UniProtKB/TrEMBL annotation:
Pathway: Cofactor biosynthesis; coenzyme A biosynthesis; CoA from (R)-pantothenate: step 2/5; Cofactor biosynthesis; coenzyme A biosynthesis; CoA from (R)-pantothenate: step 3/5
Protein's job: Catalyzes two steps in the biosynthesis of coenzyme A. In the first step cysteine is conjugated to 4'-phosphopantothenate to form 4-phosphopantothenoylcysteine, in the latter compound is decarboxylated to form 4'-phosphopantotheine.
Region ranges (Phosphopantothenate--cysteine ligase): 11-220
Gene encoding the protein: coaBC
Span of the entire protein shown here: 182 to 401 of 401
Cofactor details (free text): Binds 1 FMN per subunit.
GO terms of molecular function: phosphopantothenate--cysteine ligase activity; phosphopantothenoylcysteine decarboxylase activity
Reaction catalysed by this enzyme: (R)-4'-phosphopantothenate + L-cysteine + CTP = N-[(R)-4-phosphopantothenoyl]-L-cysteine + CMP + diphosphate + H(+); N-[(R)-4-phosphopantothenoyl]-L-cysteine + H(+) = (R)-4'-phosphopantetheine + CO2
Amino acids binding CTP: 98, 107, 124-127, 143, 157, 161
Species, as recorded: Chelatococcus sambhunathii
Protein name, as recorded: Coenzyme A biosynthesis bifunctional protein CoaBC
Family per similarity comment: In the C-terminal section; belongs to the PPC synthetase family. In the N-terminal section; belongs to the HFCD (homo-oligomeric flavin containing Cys decarboxylase) superfamily.
Amino acid sequence: RREGPLVGLRVLVTSGPTHEPIDPVRVLANRSSGRQGHAIAAAAARAGAEVTLVSGPVSITDPKDVTVVRVETAREMLEAVERSLPADIGVFAAAVADWRTDGAPQKLKKGGGGPPALSLVENPDILATVAGRADRPRLLVGFAAETENVVAHAKEKLARKGCDLIVANDVSPASGVMGGEANTVHLVSADGVESWPAMSKGAVAEELVERFAASLGRPA
Ligand code: C5P
């Protein structure tokens, strides 16, 4: 029997990178570990929610008491997310590849012709797509991984993506956030900006889940 401030609510979380095939053996990828998204899914489950985690390729273990759907590409992630709706809360922590290539059917070979030209195609924006749906989650949370002007970019993203909250973090190499255990986040919403001190990704997840409960009128 579940108990906690999110009992009876459905939470959908995306996490990890996506991998976009270049050919059958190569991918376009990014350095997301999935740690922050997975920690949020785990914290939401501990708070009593029914949690679905749609995860790109990661090497960390599945969170407890969570339904995990594994995908590779952005388009697969969008499909899995749409199949997992409706949800009361959507937390889009995945580092979705902005672009994919056409994906060659056979392994690209070195040859006299020089390196292949990769032509990039824009991927669907999963968060913006969900924000525009009739069954949009009541609380929709996006992430903004930036290497500069973190808060300014997050404010712009809040408006453009149509979400209620952006959790912004600095992922410049010096920050050690990508792949690391700790995170320093800024919460950007219509109410303004709130900057949290550096914390473990687990602690960030716990605090965020408390926020989610409070903002849906469910104080702990
Ligand atoms: O535009 P940018 O990629 O910086 O936006 C980040 C936010 O949008 C994250 O919440 C991410 O999960 C989400 N996103 C998405 N689909 C994309 C790109 C980003 O859901 N194709």
